[in-house]
Amino acid sequence: MPHSRTPAVAGWFTGENDDFRLLGTRCPSCTAVFFPREDTHCRNPHCEGASLEEVPLSRTGRIWSYTDSRYRPPSPYVSDRELPWEPYALIAVELQAERIVVLGQAAPGVTVADLTVGMEVEVVPGVLHEDAETTWTTWHWRPTEVRA
């Protein structure tokens, strides 16, 4: 049986490798962009827009903030207690064209020691979890430049 690749959240991203993109929505009335996507109404409190259009978001942005996750999440969050906890970096990335900040994990191998505020990063496909039948896919942020 083939190993299936399934998005962790359907409709939040599309593509592979160099054409991988996060998908947001834009309100045609006020031009506000949302991620996670909004499909029912404009979240801008000053807008009464009711129709939203899907838009691919910028592939690159600048680090607005970052931190590391050094502890296993407590209940009720799911975490395999049998496996050792592997710390990871969490990055808040500002997408200038969309005027929003998007959170995501750093790509494997990227630690907080590799990051600085203002550094350019790009969105890349990632793996959230794998089991015997399914690879649950998500997005990661990866620096586009090597830090000296």
TrEMBL record:
<dbReference type="InterPro" id="IPR022002">
    <property type="entry name" value="ChsH2_Znr"/>
</dbReference>
<dbReference type="InterPro" id="IPR052513">
    <property type="entry name" value="Thioester_dehydratase-like"/>
</dbReference>
<dbReference type="Pfam" id="PF12172">
    <property type="entry name" value="zf-ChsH2"/>
</dbReference>
<protein>
    <recommendedName>
        <fullName>ChsH2 rubredoxin-like zinc ribbon domain-containing protein</fullName>
    </recommendedName>
</protein>
<dbReference type="InterPro" id="IPR012340">
    <property type="entry name" value="NA-bd_OB-fold"/>
</dbReference>
<feature type="domain" description="ChsH2 rubredoxin-like zinc ribbon">
    <location>
        <begin position="19"/>
        <end position="53"/>
    </location>
</feature>
